[in-house]
Amino acid sequence: LNFLYKMILRSGRRFLAGIDDQKNLDLRPKIPVNRGEFKLDRVQPTLLNGVWQERRIVCTDSILYFALPNDDFVRDHIPMEEIILIEIMREVKESAVESKYTSLIDPRSKQLKSAGDCITEGSAVTGTASIQIRTVLDGFNSGRIYYLQSDSAESCVEMVKCLQKIVGVAKLRAEKASKFRKSQKPLRTFYNSQLFQLISSFLIVSNFVVSIIGAQIPDAGEGTQGILDQLDVFFISAFTAELCINAYANWFKQFSLNMWNWFDVLIVSLSLVGLSPAGISLKFVLLLRSCRVLRIFGKLRAVAKIFSALSFAILPM
To answer: What CA–CA distance (Å, rounded) separates 217 from 238?
Structure first.
């Protein structure tokens, strides 16, 4: 233990010694390294607090990043599936002192007008065009509207077409993911129901009782041993089905963060290996039968809290 303690101290000192500047301590998110997935990477003015400021715009298949020019630190970002509208806005001079911004979206077809229409529409048009990006109200950006400026309508049309294509693919991907989440809800309700948890706990206790009986009869006859083997196959099949339902209903974050689920994966996997002709030894299978009863701590919340409190009490401060 002393040797292990010294090794941990030495490793910690080496780690702290390697941190010699503030850059290593900077935990701000960065734009990912471009490995061919950047669809757009340019610097152009962005409207911030009523003032046009230069920002680096990086677009991937799933996220639109905003950063300072020649910088990788993310200042803001938009999930592509949360963009609900992309319009080209342009300033039209109505008089020498009055002007307004008009949309270059056809109100009938709801599609972008052609590049020629963008250039010829209106008699007094400035050369500056901007892109308006609207986001969903209940999304990450809470309905915020973004404005990106461009030097010409043609470049706006090109950029909008690129963004619309990426947004369409992202929405299809999000829709497929939402279908999966919707299919999870009824199965999660069924898995978390008291009836299902009661049946699962009953199977665990029954399996433990059968394991004790099998351990008390080491020299069982062929008939008795056959019954025990059939019961073992039944319990392994039931626990495998229960694990599959749990994994599908709570995939991925909720399932992976629960350590009892990984305990289930270990027990079920080793039990399935034990059923194979070249499986593990009989003694190890019997040990697994006894260990399955520990799964009940993950089923009963009150017992799980007691077990957790006892484990913290046993561990040294």
So the answer is: 24
Torsion angle (degrees, nearest 10) of CA 179, 185, 188, 189 = -160
Q: Is 28 helix (H, G, I), strand (E, B) or coil?
A: coil
Using left for φ > 0, alpha for ψ between -120 and 50, and beta otherwise, residue 142 falls in: left
| Interatomic CA distance for residues 48 and 56, integer angstroms | 13
Residue pair 106/113 in contact (Cβ under 8 Å)? The answer is yes
DSSP annotation of 113 reads P
Q: How confident is the model at residue 303 (pLDDT cuts 50, 70, 90)?
A: low
pLDDT higher than 70, residue 48: yes
SS3 assignment for 166-230: HHHHHHHHHHHHHHHHHHHHHHHHHHHCHHHHHHHHHHHHHHHHHHHHHHHCCCCCHHHHHHHHH
Predicted local confidence at residue 55, as pLDDT: 95
- 42: Cβ–Cβ under 8 A, 6 or more apart, which residues? 56, 57
Give the burial class of 131: count Cβ atoms within 10 A of its Cβ; 0-12 exposed, 13-18 middle, 19 or more buried.
buried
**Are 90 and 130 contacting, i.e. CB atoms less than 8 angstroms apart?**
yes
Cα separation, 169 vs 190, whole angstroms: 33
pLDDT at position 124 is 42
What's this model's pTM, rounded to 2 decimal places? 0.54
